Every structure is written in structure tokens, then in C-alpha cells.
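3.2 Worked example (two chains)
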Amino acid sequence: MEHKREKYERLVNFAATLPPTPTAVAHPCDAESLEAVIEGARLGLIAPILVGPTAKITAVAAEAGIRLGDLPLVDAPHSHAAAATAVRLVHEGRAQALMKGSLHTDELMAEVVARDTGLRTERRISHCFIMDVPGREDALIITDAAINITPTLEDKRHIVQNAIDLALALHFPAARVAILSAMETVNPKVPSTIDAAALCKMADRGQIAGGIVDGPLALDNAISEEAAHIKHIVSPVAGRANILVVPDLEAGNLLAKSLSFLAGADAAGIVLGARVPIILTSRADSVITRLASCAVASLVALARRERPAAIVH
């Protein structure tokens, strides 16, 4: 099936109409990460600040034929220092987003969550994939498949709220949240169904706001109206979910990678719950996926400027 990535193209085109988001790029010391940064800057999605060993960055750029132009460079001797310096640029007000370069995700996130110097808020930090799945009209958010290994019920409340806020920042017509499990009925022997029921009641009581939450739902009746109809599930979410909340990291990782490698989907990634959005890219990402991640961060940063209190509720 040919995948035209039209959802990402619409996202990038819209974000390009906004002012570029000042973005601290931690340790962009390979050609792949530099190319994504340069293209994002060219399209006006981000205004990058390159943080890392200056000599290495310029050498990599020269070898790959990449023109850095007048992009600002902040010297840091190694990847750990680059992560710490990038976080400091946020504290100084010089950056409104972070972007992972060629360092390990753990290195960057360790500086983000550092208790005294990091970028914590009252929210749990979580990751969202914004999936462009062939055959689906709209993008699909999957969370959390990268940060929280076995989230508690309270963690899941934050994960759901982060995803709803993302959907609103991306101008989804409605945030329809499916809390996934292996079944659509509450079963005391399956803890994820108990969490799903509790999250729905939290939404009823205003502890989760801005979206429509339903669960437990199995994957089929979360995204297929026909499956929901066959199982007699009457819900504004069932069959129409655009946010899928998985029970744990393993389930989320399997779901996202199944869509990528079996259905040809692309997966832009963003980390939420910190003071600024964090762009996580992979070497396997296509150029349009990397740009979509930048576009998502730009829209999230805009929403934070317009609704700054949202990040600490």
C-alpha cells in the first residue's frame, strides 16, 4: 500500500505558518540529526540552537555537505554536558523546546527529570507517538510506549491528560480516549480493566479534563465501528478513538511497532509533562517523520504559551 503521509504533510504545512520555536538541540553529532535540524529550520518549524562539541558538529556538517549557516552553537565537551546545557537554555528562557541529537535518550531524560536542575512539573512525564497510519483518515495518538514501564493508576491519569492536551494542541476536533485492555468488560483478574474503569470515573469527576474517555476497550472495538457494533458497545469513543492508552510500555511498544512495520505507519514522537516539549527522533525515522515531530513540538509550545497553567494541573 502506497503511503503518501498526507496527515504529516498537513501538520508540517500548518506549523510552518507559525513563528519558529526556539529549540535546544542536544549533541547533534551525526549527519542524520543535523539534516533534520537544518530542514526543520529551513521550513520555519524550529529555530535551533546546536549544543555540543563545536568542532565535532562542524566537522560532521562539513563531511556531510551540510551548511550550518549562522545557526547558533553552544559548546559542550560531551553528550552528558550537552544535555545539561540544553536544559539550562530552557531555564534561561532561550529555548522553548528540546530536541534529541545523537546521544542516548536516557542521557537527555536524566537531565530533564533531575530534581533540582531539571524540567519537572507536577505532571508525570510521558511519551506520545503521533501515528500516520495508511488507510486512516486522521492521526492516531498512542501513549505511553517509551517512558513509563509499568505506570500506576495515578501515572495513567497524567498520561491520559498529557495525551488529551496534545490532541487539543494539534487541533483534533475531539479527543476520544480509549483505555485499552484485552477485553471490554471489567474483570477483577485483569488489573488494566480496573484501571480503565477508574480512569473513566476520574474523567466523570473532572480529574481528567478536555476529552471523552471510555474503557476498558479492546483494540478492535476501540478503532473499528463494525467491531463495536457487533459487540453492542454504545459509546462516543468505541470505534472512533483517536487516542489509545495502553496498559504498559511493553504493550505500547508492540502496538506502535506493529503499526510501523506491518502496516507501514510512521511514528512521530514527543515527550510531554516537562516544562517544554521534547522531540525524540530515531535514526530509522524518515525525513517527514522527523519534521512532523518538530511540527508537533511547535504546536505544543504554542499551546503552552497560550495556556501556561495547563502544564501544572
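3.2.1 Second chain
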Amino acid sequence: MARPREFDETAVLDAAVACFWAQGYQAASVRQLADGMGITGASLYNAFGDKRSLYRRALEHYVEISFAARVRRVEPLGPRQAIAAFFEDVVERSLADPGRRGCMIVNSALEAAPHDAGFQAVVADVLVRIEGFFLRCVAAGQRDGTVASVLPAEDLARLLLGVLMGVRVMARARPERELLEGMVRPALALLDLRAG
């Protein structure tokens, strides 16, 4: 009979996220992960498999506690307001991060995805979800008149995805409010641009 787990899975995944997010996939050792998670190496392997499997679970957990939670907070707003609130939250969280960790999704796209088809698929799926959020907002805003229709909704959604990725990368190297907000402002202004 299998023994029940003697740890809080959410808490240990939070700790794994913190370790991977701070150090990256390659640099984080199994010993560091187990120590940070407060479990033994054997428990880590029994519960999550190998380091690669744990990283995938940690990345999925990060997506749920960051991106998915942010979307749940802003989607009740109007479409145009939801986009602005999404970016405002990203900028504020980026500026409040003394470790300059950036975004674990972007970090994974740069470090792990180019070398691992499985991670590439996970990251690609997340980016599709983010683009889908922007597309839903832009399309709804174009229907209700709060977002300009000078460009197709698909193009605007992809632009917003690109701006988001750029903000998250720049926040690691130059976490300056004026820079980050200055990257977002033109994209939001484009949503308000009316054909003249």
C-alpha cells in the first residue's frame, strides 16, 4: 500500500517555482530543490519523478498562480480596461521584484525550450493562451466599440503578446517604471486609435 504524502503539494510546488525561477532549470540542483521544498530527495523523486518532470509541474503551477490568476482578476472588467489592468499588474509586479527574476515563462522560453521539445510545447501552449486572452479582449472591445478596429483583432493580440514579452525581458535588465510604461503606452494608444 502506498504511503500518503506527508507534505502540502501546493507549498512544495511554490518552493520549486521559487528555486527554478531564481536559478533557472539548468542551475537548480535536485539537492537545492529538495532542500528548498523541505522534502527529501527520495520524496521529490517519488512525488514528481525526475528534475525535468518537476520543472514541468512547477512551470504549470507558475502559469496558474501568475498568468491565470491575473486573467481571472482582470477579465470581469471591460475588454479595453482588462488589457490595461493586465499590463499595469505586470509592470507593478516587475518593479516590485528585487531579484529581477522576470517571468518564468519567458525564462523557460529562453533557457529550456530551445533544447527540449517537451518544454517548447509547454511554453508554446502558454503563449497561445496569453494571445488568446488578448484576442478575446480585443475582439470583444472591437464589437462594443471600446477598442479601435483599424487593425484586425488577431494582429493587435499578437502585438500585445510581443509587448508583454518585451516588457518582461526588459524588466530583468532595466526595471525602470518610465521604460516599462513607455513600452506599454503606445500599444494601448493603438487600441484607442480611430480611423480619421
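3.3 Remarks
Residues 117-144 form the longest helix (28 residues).
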